[in-house]
Amino acid sequence: MTSTYRPQGVYSPVLTPFNADLTPAPDRFVRHCRWLLDQGVGLAVFGTNSEANSLTVAEKSGLLDTLLEAGVPPERLMPGTGACALPDTVELTRHAVKAGCSGVLMLPPFYYKGVSDEGLYRAFATVIDQVADSRLRVYLYHIPPMSQVPISLALIDRLLKAYPGIVAGVKDSSGDWSNTAAMLERFQPQGFDVFAGSENFLLANLRGGGVGCITATGNVNPGPIVNLYQRWQEPGADELQKGLDATRAVFAKLPMIPAMKAAIAWKTGRNEWATVRPPLIELNGDQRTQLQQQLDGVGFVLPKADLLA
């Protein structure tokens, strides 16, 4: 049964560890998820930085089952379920709902570009209608820099009217604060929850009535991000935000997924953590040196790194 828990706070698109043969490494995946939960971070498994679109539906379903069998609370899971093929989205979404996950993060079908709001409405509506479960909570995933398929305010408005309570919120990874602010102003009074797509906008989002962030670097810098979420109304919140921005900027200078995996490999001494699935490639030696030096420069630590080894 699905919990009535309403996701809020800091979530991270959990990195997917791979073995040398490029198969997922379930044991390390579970350890990483437990490590994040221990620091107050929710699990947006199968997001962009999870290399989700390099995973099959069967792999994602299997990893989700592995987490549940390991005792990870389903209400702290918000799996990414959006895919180009609607039957894949329906299958994974149905699986997540039956597992008791508190919500799903849903990309639009992203291969075809220049599609209309009507087409996108039909895509989301088809999934909701075919899953046909009142427990479903959809969090729309707006990430036009990657998908090139934006989710407009007009589309959100239409979906909210057609599926009140089921269309529950959004992750705005546009990188455009004015767009996030418009979502907050227009939809937050209707109980529609807005997550910023990066901790860079966490403080502004909370001040605007948003509920938190779903952020890549929650994988490697969870404690300070959660700290700001907990203390955003206290004096000094702006300085905490600046600290988060400085650490994020180091990772952002390099390909984000390989950089985060390289940081974990460095701090745990487990080189297999650096493995990514093609077409991504791991950082080269110069890039790893740059990353380590600059992370040292901002005082980066990975607490209890032995738990990830």
Textual characterization of the structure:
This protein has 309 residues and is an alpha/beta fold. The chain has one domain (9-299): Alpha-Beta Barrel (TIM Barrel), CATH 3.20.20.70. Helix content is 45%, strand content 9%. The chain has twelve helices and seven strands. The protein has helices at residues 26-38, 57-69, 86-99, 117-131, 144-147, 153-162, 177-187, 202-207, 222-231, 237-252, 256-268, 285-297; strands spanning 9-12, 42-43, 104-106, 138-142, 167-172, 193-196, 212-214. It has a seven-stranded parallel β-sheet with strand order 2-1-7-6-5-4-3. Strand 3, helix 4 and strand 4 form a beta-alpha-beta unit. Helix 9 runs antiparallel to helix 10. The radius of gyration is 18 Å and the shape is globular. The model has no long low-confidence stretch (mean pLDDT 97).
CATH topology: TIM Barrel
**Largest sheet at a glance?**
7 strands, parallel
State the secondary-structure class.
Answer: alpha/beta
The top-level CATH class is Alpha Beta
Strand share of the residues?
Answer: 5-15%
Helicity, in percent?
Answer: 40-55%
What CATH architecture label applies? Alpha-Beta Barrel
Key structural traits:
TIM Barrel; 309 residues
Furnish the topology, listing elements before pairings.
Elements lengths: L8 E4 L13 H13 L3 E2 L13 H13 L16 H14 L4 E3 L10 H15 L6 E5 L1 H4 L5 H10 L4 E6 L4 H11 L5 E4 L5 H6 L4 E3 L7 H10 L5 H16 L3 H13 L16 H13 L12
Parallel strand pairs: 1-2, 1-7, 3-4, 4-5, 5-6, 6-7
Helix pairs in contact: 2-3, 3-4, 4-6, 9-10, 11-12
